[in-house]
# Entry
Amino acid sequence: MKVVVVGAGYAGAFAANRVAKKVKGAEVTVVNARPEFVERIRLHQQVAGTGAVATPLGAMLRPGIAVRIGSVEKIGDGTAVLDDGESLAFDHLFLAVGSTVRALPGTVPVGTWEGAQQARDELAALPGGSTVTVVGGGATGIETATEVAEARPDLRVRLVAPEAADCLSGAARRRALAALERLRVEVVADVVAEAAAGRVRLGSGRELESGLTLWGIVAGVPDLAARSGLEVDADGRVVVDGCLRSVTDPRIFAVGDCAGVVGARFGCQTAAPQARAAADALARLAEGREPEPYELRYAARCVSLGRKDAVAQFTHPDDSLKDSHLKGFTAVAFKRMVFTGTRYLTRKAVGA
Ligand SMILES: Cc1cc2nc3c(=O)[nH]c(=O)nc-3n(C[C@H](O)[C@H](O)[C@H](O)COP(=O)(O)OP(=O)(O)OC[C@H]3O[C@@H](n4cnc5c(N)ncnc54)[C@H](O)[C@@H]3O)c2cc1C
# Structure
């Protein structure tokens, strides 16, 4: 059985390893845009220069899995067409192309590898005393603003968002806001309407000086599924059945950020469980058994606040927030466990 996995982030790498392990006789080929596995949840560290987040793909994938570096341009009837024109035939395909950014012109996105590399270079070249504006008050914006503020105390860091840290609530949210204040990040309750060299214009019309403007919002998914004629939801994610198969072509599984699971938000927290569920569904189908449905479950929202602080607020399985949370050193350790644990589970294709 030929299995092609498109994308080798958390979902794709896990799915490839799990299929190679569980589906007898599967020939697995992974197609990824670059030769490294990028720990996307640590891209803010890449930006601030506080950590390396790329690992050669070979170290993340089981022996025997073939790797093609390139971009899949179109998925047809049992074929995936690469940007070099070659077609890969498949019996089953796992679509795991993740999510993307829609950055305002004049800003540098931190949510993609290419953007994070550019941000890192521009930040390193920024003279002391300059102002860095981070757009977005969700986890990506807060992690970026605090990481940069801690790593570069010689810069002025500003966070622009209608409501900073609104992914958290109660005492956990207050903790995140206090960390921004402690790291002298100026929080501006507004939106950035326009960005150009050296300045930003806010929604209120105010103009502010900005030596570098970082776009800290992840939104949208690559249009590969839509372009290939698969049914997608309003956000462009693949519409799937209970076992994560495309409702247009059941040979295709969608996992991770690009899967249109109702109630799911972007997160590595759901990428591995979806990859596991889809790979196990294929293993059961290959044995002539009924696949088991995937069940969406959340556990926590964890936001790092520089290298020495973090906050992790627990959630109910439906992602609604509980009051309980971890803070300080315990939350830092928890977040580190998320990084290292996710990498380990992805490589071993276990747990999740
Ligand atoms: C700074 C930051 C912090 C975050 N923190 C957290 C967190 O604490 N907790 C959490 O749960 N989530 C967090 N997230 C979100 C999390 O990173 C994503 O939800 C997760 O990476 C999704 O995994 P994925 O495998 O679906 O996609 P990705 O990890 O984005 O991987 C997709 C892969 O597909 C490749 N690809 C795309 N298109 C093609 C193509 N056409 N052909 C071939 N390859 C292609 C890409 O190059 C990439 O390698 C964070 C995100 C950011 C940016």
